[in-house]
Specification:
Length: about 280
C-alpha cells in the first residue's frame, strides 16, 4: 500500500493565517499591490501569463510577499522577529534545523537580547541561516498551501486579476508582437491543459459559476462545460490559471467578450433556512 498521507497533508491553520495576510497586501496595507510588485520584483510578466503555468503568477506574488516580509525585518535588525516564527514553522512542518547549531536565544524578544548578554551579530547570523533554510526547504510547501486557500477564493482572484488588468491594458502591440493580438489584448492560448481543467472543475464543484447549473453529467448529460476567462482577454485578462472559471455553454456565449461579470458561488455544505430571509 502506498502511503499518500504525506503527499496530501497540509497545515490548514498556517495556510489560512498567511492567506489572510495576502488579502491585506493585495488591499495595499504596505503598498505591495500587483503593479508595485511587478515593478519592484522585475517579473517576466509576458512569458508568465501568455499561457497557463502550474506555478502561477499568484504563486510568485505569495512568494514575494513572504520573502519581503522576512527580508525587511532582517534589514531592520530584528533577528528574533524572523527566528521565532520560522522556528515555529519548522516545528509545524517537521523541518530539521538542528544542524544550524545551538540557539539558546530562541523564544526571546529582540529587545531582550542585550539584557541576556547575547551578541547581536551572532543572532543575526543565525537568523540569516534559518531564513536560507526556509527558502530551501519550506518555502515551496508554504506557497503551495497558501495558494490552495486563495485559489478557492473567487473574490481574491477577481481582485488580483483586476489589478493585473490595469497593467495589461496599457501594453502596446508594437512592443510585444509575440504575445499580443492588439493593444492591451493577449493572444488566446491554443489549448487549456488537462491539469488546469481538472483543477478549475474541482474547485467550482462542477457547477456553472454564472447560473449554477450542474455540469458533472450526473444530473444532465447535455450540459457542456466551458473554461471561461473571468476577465476576458479582450478586456485585459490573462491566460494565468487564476483567471479561469467553469461556466456552461449558454452563459459563456451570452457573457460576451467585454463583460467582466463575475459571481462568487459559495458551495454551502447544507442549506440553512435562516439565510436570506424573505
Ligand atoms: Zn450557466
Amino acid at each position: 500500500m502506498v502511503d499518500l498521507s504525506r503527499k496530501y497533508s497540509w497545515n490548514g491553520n498556517e495556510a489560512l493565517i498567511n492567506a489572510a495576510h495576502m488579502v491585506n497586501e493585495l488591499h495595499g496595507v504596505n503598498d505591495l499591490q500587483v503593479e508595485n510588485w511587478l515593478d519592484y520584483d522585475e517579473v517576466d510578466l509576458l512569458t508568465k501569463i501568455s499561457k497557463p503555468h502550474k506555478e502561477t503568477l499568484l504563486h510568485d506574488y505569495i512568494s514575494f510577499i513572504t520573502f519581503t516580509m522576512y527580508e525587511y525585518t532582517l534589514d531592520k535588525h530584528f533577528p528574533m522577529a524572523v527566528i521565532n516564527p520560522l522556528v515555529e514553522l519548522m516545528n509545524i512542518y517537521d523541518v530539521d534545523y538542528s544542524y544550524l547549531g545551538e540557539a539558546p536565544f530562541i523564544g526571546l524578544d529582540d529587545e531582550d537580547l542585550h539584557l541576556y548578554g547575547y551578541d547581536q551579530n551572532l543572532v543575526e547570523k543565525f537568523a540569516h541561516k534559518i531564513f536560507k533554510l526556509y527558502g530551501e526547504k519550506l518555502e515551496p510547501t508554504m506557497v503551495s498551501d497558501i495558494f490552495t486557500v486563495l485559489f478557492a477564493n473567487k473574490q481574491f482572484l477577481y481582485e488580483f486579476n483586476k489589478q493585473l488588468q490595469e497593467v495589461v491594458e496599457v501594453l502596446k502591440l508594437k512592443d510585444h508582437p509575440d504575445y499580443l493580438k492588439k493593444d492591451g489584448v493577449f493572444k488566446r492560448c491554443k489549448y487549456l491543459p488537462k491539469w488546469l481543467q481538472k483543477g478549475v472543475f474541482m474547485r467550482d464543484k462542477g457547477r456553472c459559476q454564472i447560473c449554477g447549473t450542474d455540469l458533472t453529467k450526473v444530473l444532465h448529460l447535455d450540459n457542456q462545460e466551458n473554461y471561461d476567462h473571468i476577465i476576458p482577454l479582450e478586456s485585459g485578462g490573462t491566460n494565468d490559471p487564476t483567471n479561469f472559471q467553469l461556466t456552461c455553454e449558454h452563459c459563456n456565449k451570452s457573457k460576451g467578450d467585454r463583460s467582466t461579470m463575475y459571481h462568487s458561488l459559495g458551495a454551502r455544505f447544507w442549506e440553512n433556512e435562516n439565510l436570506f430571509p424573505k
